[in-house]
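tool_log.txt
---
The assistant was asked to compare two proteins side by side. It first ran the structure predictor on the initial sequence, then on the second. Raw inputs and outputs are pasted verbatim so the downstream comparison step can read them without reformatting.
(1)
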Amino acid sequence: MKQNIIKTLKFLSFFLLGILIFWMVYKDQDVSRIKSILTNDVNYFWIVVSLFLGLLSHISRTIRWNLMIEPLGHRPRTLNTFLAVMIGYLMNLALPRMGEISRCGVLARYEKIPFTKLVGTVVLERLIDVLMLLLLLLIVVFTQFGQVLEFLGNNPEVKERLEKVIYSPTLIGVLVLTLLIVWFSRHKIRASAFMKKVSDFVGQFVEGFRSILKMKKVGAFVFHSVFIWLLYYVMLYCVFFSFGFTSHLTALAGLTVFVLGSFGMVAPVQGGIGAWHFMVIEGLVLYGVDRVDGKVFALLAHGSTTIMLIVMGLISLLVLPFVNERVDDTVVLKEGNS
């Protein structure tokens, strides 16, 4: 009961934070103008192409995850892994970072793979995604340095918050104090029963994390790691061709907006709502797009993707038990015939 209350409070707090940011971004927007642009000035062909590329990226992520799981001695069915990934995206819309745990739980249940090992692979997966995002950020910084400076100049609060986090005396003090407590209590900690459980958990976690070292298809893994992010980028850039006010922008401009939006997705709100919109709008403004037009762009790009994730996630929830029930029935029939 207590855990349910805590989960509900977390959901509401993150959701309200996202709604607050979204409201601050769109509070002065002319609704009639949004309707007019969405009705008359959008080439929806490119939205369809964008969503198709998004679906391909999820399939690529599915294949990459299976490549990471194989060294653990398990070969989950691709369909189950794909459905688990899509359910994970759906859960992320309910509670930030819940999707990673949810998809591990789904695959652990239906493929009988240890949950902690799967968590290790997902953590490694996220680290690789962070590295890919940082690589794209470096490309943006070196090729679009003027726009990056302009963005920080237009949003001094972003720069101030980054500096506060990095140089925060409170953060440094807490880290030092924690290290001291752990050091002086290390013998008691090692001897505790709790530590033994943690050690067992970490052992399985590390085994999953180190799966990449045993991977046979390293080339395929690298390909999908790059391909996923390439598709993410092209997925957003396709939306540029849906509007007359963005269709003339270059691929590098699209990359800048994509990277800024990706950092917006890191915010602890469901699906990056509000934060993603703000970052994308500011990115478009750097390239001369009217702020009002940028708001319409962000609304359609984010909204269409979110709807796709909700639909695919709900379909996956419905299909998953049915697919695995059919598999179980087939196994039983084979065993009976033998």
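(2)
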Amino acid sequence: MPASTRHHRALAVFIYCLGILAAVPALPGPAAAQPPVAAQPPVARPPAPAAAATAPAGQPSAEPSAGPDRPSAPPALPVPTRAAVPPPKPPVTVQVASENTAAPKYRIQVRNDGNRPISTTVRQELPPGTSATSITDGGRPSHHGGTAGTEVTWDLRLPARSTTTLRTELSAPAGAPLTAPACAFAADGERPYDCATATWQSGSTPAAAEPEPPLWQRPAALLTGFGGLAALAVGGWWTWQRRRRPTQVPLPDPESRGSIYPRPAAPTAPARRRRPSTWLLIPVAAVVLVGTGGAAAWTATRKAAAVDTDSNPSSGAWIGTAAAGAVGEPLREAAFEFTVYRISCQRASAAHTCAATVGVHNRTPEQQSWHGQLQRAYLADGNFVNTDEPATRRVNQGRDVFAKPLAGGSRMVLPLVFRVPGQQPPTQLELRSGVFSAGVRVDVP
């Protein structure tokens, strides 16, 4: 028998044996191996549930096939993850608008969308260095907390389905834009219903355009100029060398004089192609390299000088661009848009307790999570503290605002509490949506 035939038969026998071994576990056990069972009267089996009878074709039934001592089978389809639910709309909403006047004026509209009257406290934060010259409907100016912040306060009783309009006028230097946010709080004065902000711009003073830098301060222009000069120098030298080269005319052969059939001219060697001198290429290359390096160094120096050395909390972030601003300015980072509407600090024996009214707007279509340990209050010496989560939960009526993600496109306004040790209040707040987010920074007035 040839060797190839023997190998084929051995392989076939091996595969046949594997098939038998695979089929043995599926066969029922012998009847003799089972213990004898005494005859019992037939017991009526309960009918199968209707859900199993109506299972769609192509899907396994949800009824477990195992006995009572075995765990039930997993569901046929995986249970989808529950999407984040947007926060409910507050019963009281606020809108703030600035008027186009010579002096800063603001219009605050407070609306009660509920079916019953609501008592609320409206507070408008005034920019630093300003004061209120005109207040409508019984508002009063006051200082809040241990900071130098000034605000205007109204105690209102809003009828059901009504809108109340409040107006303020400020005295401030003309020309500078002023941002004055306003919030409506519950009767306890700590839980905000809603907040809004507006920035007043002087209509008579147009925004000054940033002057364009001169030509010698533009890296692209310098690099283009150096390259053009180098190309012109090389082209001019090469043209001068070509014109300077004499034209060689072949001399007649003296033996071919007077002959009718002159001898063919002897083949001449091809003219050697002249190349640019090395002593010229080296200076041109050096000029180009020096110009490129100088432009790159100048650009890097300008960018390094533009970096704020005091913004070290967000200097190492990976995603997005860090944003900084004042109270009332919407600041966008990687996923969230943060707006700090109000900061109030109360001094205790050896610490400050600061409550910040913060608006969080998820600008992405996906739900986003955020954490209390990423929200910080910085001191003047660079130290920071995280959110006091027990105190934050207490002012939010026992609700953990960091437990659930924020739905895509939704917005909420909530207070964050920071406990800062020492005699000085914080100088800056830093808010982030994620660990690798650049975050935003808000100066404490």
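---
observation on (2): The longest strand covers residues 336-347. The domain at 92-200 is CATH 2.60.40.290 (Immunoglobulin-like).
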